[in-house]
Design a protein that fits this description.
Blueprint (H helix, E strand, L loop, with lengths): L2 H10 L8 H14 L5 H10 L7 H7 L4 H21 L1
Helix pairs in contact: 1-2, 2-3, 3-4
Length: 89
């Protein structure tokens, strides 16, 4: 994973509720969309959620039952990050 990809994973994982977090997640979503790692419909959910900092687009995808492949990718990345943090303790 290169620095740009690492930075975009960090942005897309920005916790909901932080100021401007919706826009940060949407910017990262554009990166993954351009790399063909995300569908247009998933990107649209990130766009809709971009102005709602307290709304996690992954939660919205789950609620609308769409973007399962992307949801799995994000959940796997979250697990990897959690395991990485745990292994450093």
């Amino acid at each position: 994973m290169d620095d740009e990809e690492r930075e975009n994973w960090a942005l897309i994982m920005t916790p909901a509720g932080e100021e401007w977090s919706g826009r940060a997640r949407y910017a990262a979503a554009m990166y993954f969309f351009r790399r063909n790692e995300m569908s247009a419909e998933v990107l649209e959910i990130y766009r809709i959620c971009s102005r709602i900092d307290h709304e996690d687009a992954v939660d919205a995808l789950k609620a609308y039952r769409m973007g399962q492949a992307w949801i799995e990718k994000v959940e796997n990345k979250r697990r990897e990050l959690a395991e990485s943090v745990e292994s450093r303790r």
